[in-house]
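Worked Example 4.2. Consider the chain below.
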Amino acid sequence: MGQTVKKLIEQKNVDGLRQLLTDNPNLANEGITIPYDFFCRTKAHPLHRICDAVFARKMSDAEAITLAKVFLEFGADINGYNDGSPLLAAASLHAEQLGIFYIDNGADINITDENDKASALHWAAFCGRDKLVDKLIKSNAIFDEPEKTYQSTPLGWAIHCLSSNDEGNRHNQLACIKQLIQAGADIKKLSTEAKENLHSFADNDPELKNILT
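Applying the procedure from the previous section yields the following structure tokens:
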């Protein structure tokens, strides 16, 4: 049986992937299931699926970027297709440097999930990925638009995560909160609970308190 895109990703076989795509460049945009996962049946764009590999800690961001470069070399669509963009995947799956790479290569920074309309900035803020948040802000991403399910902005998502008991997702949400407020995020758009939590954080963080005053 010949090699597949999924198998070559799992092997981190850059040369093999380049040869396979040389023979069949259409595979650069053909959906695959989650790497390293035997049970997954849902297919998504390869640039999305390498984010899953980073999330599973099977490869580093740097290794994923090396693979992404090969896919782009053979015409992979940086915005993927209807499964949600690779940038959204990177932001929600903690593939921070890969997300920055996608932005540098022309990803639509304001693309949103087709269901709840959450953006990459919503997810990067929720996941506490301050470097990606900074990149999105500096790339002029829309930073104050609420999504549809909770009617919450990226700032609200960061506050919600920091105030929750989700220790496994605790990263640099406080830094993201500061970045968004300094960029001009409207605190008035927050829910009453989010505003209370924000001021509670400020009581224990002089820098945030100074930003709010």
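The domain at 114-213 is CATH 1.25.40.20 (Serine Threonine Protein Phosphatase 5, Tetratricopeptide repeat). DSSP finds twelve helices and no strands in the chain. Compare this with Example 4.1 before moving on.
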